[in-house]
Specification:
By secondary structure, the chain is mostly helical. The chain is built from 6 helices and 2 strands; from the N terminus they run αααααββα.
Length: 187
């Protein structure tokens, strides 16, 4: 149950921190060399970790807010979208793959907004949370990109991104199936 009147909680501060890290990530990803790539990967992982932390603090301190429920998934989507878009011109991620992932995120956000007009807040399900974790892992490895200790980080990242893409599409289909059931029930 959201805490009324509480906006500036630790969890919401962490979400805002994730949002403010995006311009820095974009700046770092503008330079595809080894050092900026490694720094961008570290920043991306740290920013993504705040997603876990904000949920932990919100539940632990009983400070779940409506703002947090709306802003948290938006921050996740913007972080992933920014990284994917910046990786396209470097040839690290195919544009079509980024488009499918981003389109799913926009479509699910649209569905959430439709439910919101009905007074229903849809929180991510386990598939959606797993999708985000796998996307973060894949994208951070792709951001590292270069070979270290004989390991081709780009190939590993792309393999994981393919799996993340499949889970992303499947979790999107679950949202749409639930939306369809909701429409059928409320004719």
């Amino acid at each position: 149950m959201p805490v009324p009147g509480k906006i500036l909680t630790i969890a919401n501060h962490l979400t805002l921190l994730r949002l403010t890290s995006i311009p820095i990530l974009i700046f770092l990803l503008s330079f595809p060399q080894r050092l900026p790539s490694m720094l961008a990967a570290i920043l991306f992982l740290l920013a993504s970790f705040t997603d876990f932390l904000d949920g932990f603090f919100a539940r632990r301190r009983n400070q779940v807010t409506t703002l947090g429920k709306l802003l948290d998934p938006l921050a996740d989507k913007l972080l992933v979208t920014a990284a994917l878009i910046m990786l396209i011109p470097q040839g690290r991620v195919p544009a079509w793959m980024a488009f499918v992932i981003i389109a799913r995120e926009i479509a699910v956000t649209g569905l959430r907004n439709i439910f919101l007009t009905e007074g229903i807040i849809i929180t991510p399900n386990i598939l959606g949370k797993g999708k985000f974790c796998l996307q973060v892992l894949a994208i951070s490895i792709i951001i590292v990109h270069y070979r270290y200790l004989g390991i081709d980080f780009h190939k590993i990242g792309m393999f994981l991104l393919w799996i993340a893409l499949i889970i992303t599409v499947c979790s999107g289909l679950v949202y749409f199936a639930n939306f369809y059931r909701y429409l059928q029930k409320n004719k």
